[in-house]
Write a structure and sequence with these properties.
about 220 residues; alpha+beta; five-stranded antiparallel β-sheet; about 15% strand
Length: about 220
């Protein structure tokens, strides 16, 4: 099933689906036998496949130009009320290639929570990020404050959301996942120039201050 999905990605994007044995960017950060999706030059194919050419309504734009595109209630209405998988993707200011930074699921192991229920913790009126996971909240708020475009790509045509997630985490590394593929690695660089995260200026002062406060708390708690 997952191999079929990868073929969909290849056919739609007309790019070669290439999985490198060794990640040339992180040089060993990815575990043996895995490609580092976070650093792959072809990861945009993966992001496109999640949101395009498979099922309508699979792509949700959350934030651009430093602000949420709508309030929580409006955005939550657009989240599918079914089981499935999802990716958070970031696109740098003035950039065109989305980069997948987190993969998750809703449903599986007898859990009845749908994607809509899962995103109750992620969507807020002024920012995107899980309140229950401080590190991920900080990373996404910081990205938003620096005008990164945040999009969610949904997969709702999988037979088993848990199995699909495990297959992805077995094969690829996502920067904000710490399941099966090593520790979270953040901040990360973007583009061929490997531009550092801090080089993108903060354009939303309120969110920039929130990101700084979250960063301080993480350091106090020894998590950063």
């Amino acid at each position: 099933m997952y191999g079929v999905w990868c073929m969909h990605a290849w056919l739609w994007s007309r790019h070669v689906w290439h999985v490198a044995e060794v990640c040339k960017v992180c040089k060993g950060e990815a575990q043996a036998g895995k490609a580092c999706l976070a650093h792959s030059t072809n990861m945009c194919d993966c992001a496109q496949a999640y949101g395009t050419g498979l099922r309508s309504g699979n792509l949700l734009l959350v934030s651009q130009n430093g602000s949420m595109v709508a309030d929580k209630a409006t955005l939550r209405k657009q989240v599918p009320d079914v089981f499935g998988n999802y990716m958070w993707t970031l696109t740098p200011p003035h950039g065109r290639k989305a980069r997948a930074v987190y993969l998750g699921k809703a449903g599986g192991d007898g859990i009845k929570q749908t994607l809509k229920g899962r995103f109750e913790d992620y969507l807020h009126d002024k920012y995107f990020g899980p309140k229950t996971e401080l590190f991920k909240q900080w990373a996404m708020v910081d990205a938003q404050s620096r005008a990164f475009k945040i999009e969610i790509r949904f997969r709702t045509d999988m037979d088993n959301a848990k199995s699909a997630e495990e297959d992805s985490l077995d094969q690829y590394d996502f920067a904000l996942n710490n399941q099966k593929n090593g520790d979270v690695r953040w901040p990360i660089t973007f583009g061929q120039s490997k531009k550092q995260w801090e080089e993108y200026p903060v354009i939303n002062k309120e969110l920039g201050e929130l990101a700084q406060a979250l960063q301080v708390k993480l350091k106090i708690d020894g998590k950063l």
